[in-house]
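User: Please predict the structure of the protein below. I'd like the answer in structure-token form so I can feed it into my own downstream comparison script.

Assistant: Understood. Taking the following sequence of 210 residues as input:
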Amino acid sequence: MLKSLPRSTALATTLVVSTLLAGCAAPLLIGGAATAGYVGLQNRTTQQVAADTEVKLRVKDALAQARGNYFLDVGIDVFYGNVLLTGVVPTQAEGDQVLDLARRTVGVQKVYNELFVGSAYTAGQKAKDAWISAQIQPRLLGAKDAYPLNYLITVVNNHVYILGDALTQGEKDHVLHILRTTRGVQQVHDYLVVKGVNRNDDRANVMPRS
């Protein structure tokens, strides 16, 4: 049975699968939502994981219908109906289109806009982001009182974005410290909510990127 696996083994397996699933996408994703088999190790219920997955697919479908493969460098993370957009778009108009499509998608509660506008996402930069991601994974796995399946972590242009929840403020502070002290990380964008705190609070770090 999956739950009989040691915690470190289960999390390591999940992170490997998640990375493989995200390997074709431009933003580098680390985290647990991709592997439904380990939902029992998450704070979210099975129903919530399914609902978030459905919202993500709806947003991706809306983008695909609008521009085909043109938005391949856009990453989408969903946690409790809140959508985090990361990645790169060529122009502000296209960024606005992505934001509008996400906001109008059924099931979306709030959209956090972290899109880079007007910059190319080069192969060299993708390699740097992959290198940062490769450092974060073992650091989270080896950390006491850190539970990677409850965090969705994306790396774009040396920026790290974390969406999810923590059981305590201490856990949140610990995880953010790990991310901020990882080599190569330029900035950490915090969308990590302490469980029980209103997820739809308007905080400073959820304002759209200008």
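That's the full token string. The beta strands are 28-31, 74-79, 82-89, 110-117, 151-156, 159-166, 187-194.
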